[in-house]
Give the backbone structure.
Amino acid sequence: MTLPLGRAMREVFGETVAELADTDPRIVMLDADVGSSTRADIFEHRHPDRYLQMGIAEQNMLGVAAGLATVGLIPFVSTFVAFAVVRPLDQIRVLIAQTGLNVKITPGYAGIFTGLTGKTHLIVDDVSIMRAMPGMVTVCPADDIEAAQALRWCASYQGPAYIRLVRDATQRLFDGSYAFEFGRAVVVREGRDVTLISTGTQTPRVVDAAELLAAQGIEAHVLHVPTIKPLDVPAIVAAADRTGCVVTVEEHTIIGGLGGAVAEALSEHRPTLVKRLGMQDVFGESASNAALLELYGLSAARVSEQVAAICRTRGKEAAAQS
Amino acid sequence: MTTTTQDPEVRRLEESARRIRVEIIRAVNEAKAGHLGGPLSAADMLAALYFRVMRIRPEEPGWPDRDRFVLSKGHSSIGLYAALALRGYFPLGELATFDQAGTRLQGHPDMTRLPGLDMSTGSLGMGISAGLGIALGARLTGRSDVRTYVMLGDGECQEGEVWEAAMVAARYGLDTLIAIVDHNKLQQYGWAGDGPDGRLPPEAPGELVAKWAAFGWRVLEVDGHDMASVVDVLERAREGDGRPTVVISHTVKGKGVSFMEGHYYWHTRALTADEFATAMADLGEPVAATNGGAR
C-alpha cells in the first residue's frame, strides 16, 4: 500500500498566502515572471495591488523584499528555488540574513521535481546553503497539509525564513489532525531495527519504503524532520537510540543537507552509524519524476533495497563480532 | 565647497560639508586604514541631504514618516557616519571607534547596530534594490510624502543589479525614489588606459546619463561640489513627474585634500603623519605637530 497523492503544493502555496493576505494587509507577494507556474497568480487574482511583479531580475527582487520589510510589510518571495536561492544568494546574505529582516523566501520547484527542465532548474544543494547561513530558518514540508501550516507559521514568525516548496502533487503523509510545530521533528512510524530520518516530500516515500521493509521482516523507525534549522536534536538522538543505526534519506545532495545535519548532531551528542541516501554529489538531469526517483535511488522500492542492504551488512558485522 | 556665495544658508551647508571631511580624515587616520576618496567626493551631497533636504528626526531615527537614505556605495560609510554624528544621531566622539572591535560604526553600514541607518550595504549594487523596495513599500502603506534617496558610486553602476532595479523602478513609475550617482570618474582600480595615473574612468563621458535616460528615468546633472546647485537639484528631485529620478553628481574623488584629488590610489589607504597634517590644513583645520590629531 502506498500513500495517496495530495494536492499540488504550488496551488496550496498560492491559496494559503492569498488567504493570509485576506486578513493581514502587510503581506505582499513578489514574483519573477513565473507566477503562472509557481501559482503566485492565485495571490495576484485576489490581491492585485499587493502582487509585485519584479520581472526576470531575481537579484533585485530579493533586495526589494528587504526594503519592503523595513517599512513593516511581510514580503513572500516566489520563483523557482534555483533562482530564489543561488542566483540572488549574496542579496539574501547581505540584505536579508545579516539584517534579520522579515522576508519569507518561499519558492516552488524544489529538488528534482521541476517538470522536465534538467540541470539548471533542478537544485539539490539549497538546504545545505540556506542552513549554513546565520539566522536563516529552513523548513521542508512533507506534503500539502504541512506546507499550508508551515506557510501560516512563517507569516507570524518575525525574521527571515526559507520554506522549500515542491511543484507537483506529492504523496500525502498527514491528515487534517496534524499540527506542524516549528523546530520539532515527528515520528511517523515506530520500529526497532533501523532508524530512517527524512525530510520534505521524500518522507512519504520513506514511509512506503518502510512498509516494503516490513514485508521482509525489517521494522523501520521513521522520523520526519520538517525543520532542518533549527534542528530538533533531542528527537534525532531519541530516534537514533531506538535502533542504533541511522539512515538519512533526502531528495537533495547528501552533502550538508539533512544527512549532514543529522551526522553533525549525532557525532556530537550520540555517536551512531549514519548512512546517507540522496543525491551522491551529482547535478540533476531531464526526465520524468518517476524516472529521476529511480535514477537517484529515491523511490520507495530503491530506498527499501538500499536500507535492506545496509541492515544485512550491519547484521553480518554484528554476527562477526559476537 | 569653493563657492564664495554670501548666502548664509549655503555657507552653513558648506561648513557642514567641510566638517564632514574633517571627521572623515580624523576617523580614517585613527583607524589606520579606510576609504577616503569616495567619502570625500560625496561629502557635499551628504551635507545637503542631512542638513537641509531630508525630512528626518535625529532624536527619533525610526520615525515612520522620515525620508530614507541608503548608501549603496557602502564603502563610503565614514562619510555617512560623520554626517549622522554631526547631525546629532550619536556623539561625535564615537567616530573614533570606526572599524574597531565592537563598534556600531562598521566598515560597511550595519543597520542592526546603528540607529539611523535605513539599510545595511557593502556588497555593491544592492542598495538601489533595497531603496526601490523601501519606496514601493512607503507607497503601498500610504506614506506618499516619504522620499527615498539612494547614493551609488559610478563604478558601482557596473553591477548588473543596478539596471535590474532601474528597469523595475521605471515600470512602477516610482517618482519618490531618487538615486544619486557620485560620479567621481574613478573606481578602485579599473581598466588601464589613457587616463589619470594610467587608469580609465568607470564610464565614458555621457554614458551614465544616456543609460539612466534609456531606462526611463528623469536625469538631472549637477556639479556635486557647488552647494547652491546641489541644494537646488535635490529640491527639484523631490518633486516627482511620474518617473524615478537620478541625479548625476559630477564630483572629484578625494575632493578637499590636495594630494588626494583625482588619484585612484586614494580610494582606500592609510595616512602618514605628514599626510594627515597636510590634509587637515587643506580642510582649514590645522593640527599642532604634537597632538597627533586628537580631538
The longest strand of chain A covers residues 245-253. Chain A has a mean pLDDT of 96. The radius of gyration of chain A is 19 Å. Chain A has two domains: 5-171, 186-321.
